[in-house]
């Protein structure tokens, strides 16, 4: 019996160890939505996927659907966001946003807009020098945008530019006067989601 091989670009949202040498990966894919896939033998020294399958990387993967979950058969780097991941504050921010997305999405459904929002967010963090306060504003901005895209956000006109525009230093400067209101909106949406 042959299995269909799916190829897609994805952002690795996170991973966890399973068994002796395997690892489970949470992938936000361009074509399939959120996919949970296992990589066999990845923690072994000879594991062929160990260098390309890393948390918070932008990669191309080959997947095969198994009985219970996807299997990752191959992976190749597209971008590893090296500068971003060398910064502890930025890495922690990406981890929190990734956990939020994993928490809010259940089941596989293609969402190219969400994929593009996360990719733009990672590119922005990679190229910009940002202070602690700016990083906090970036987190508020991306959380507000993700919640809105997934149907948990407010339709209030004051937040509209933050939903529509890509991240930029200029947009962050417009976040300052509404940051408290945005944080209240995020907390309200998370409480109402019951997730």
Could you explain how this protein is built, in words?
This protein has 195 residues and is α+β, with helices and mostly antiparallel strands. It has 2 domains: 5-79, OB fold (Dihydrolipoamide Acetyltransferase, E2P); 82-193, no CATH class. The protein is built from 7 helices and 5 strands, in the order E-E-E-E-E-H-H-H-H-H-H-H. It has helices spanning 82-85, 88-104, 112-127, 132-149, 160-164, 169-175, 179-193, and strands at residues 5-18, 22-29, 33-39, 58-65, 70-79. The protein has a 5-stranded mixed barrel with strand order 1-2-3-5-4. Helix 3 (112-127) runs antiparallel to helix 4 and helix 4 (132-149) crosses helix 7. The chain starts with a strand and ends with a helix.
Task: Write a compact overview of the structure shown.
This protein has helices at 82-85, 88-104, 112-127, 132-149, 160-164, 169-175, 179-193, and strands spanning 5-18, 22-29, 33-39, 58-65, 70-79. The protein is α+β, with helices and mostly antiparallel strands and 195 residues long.
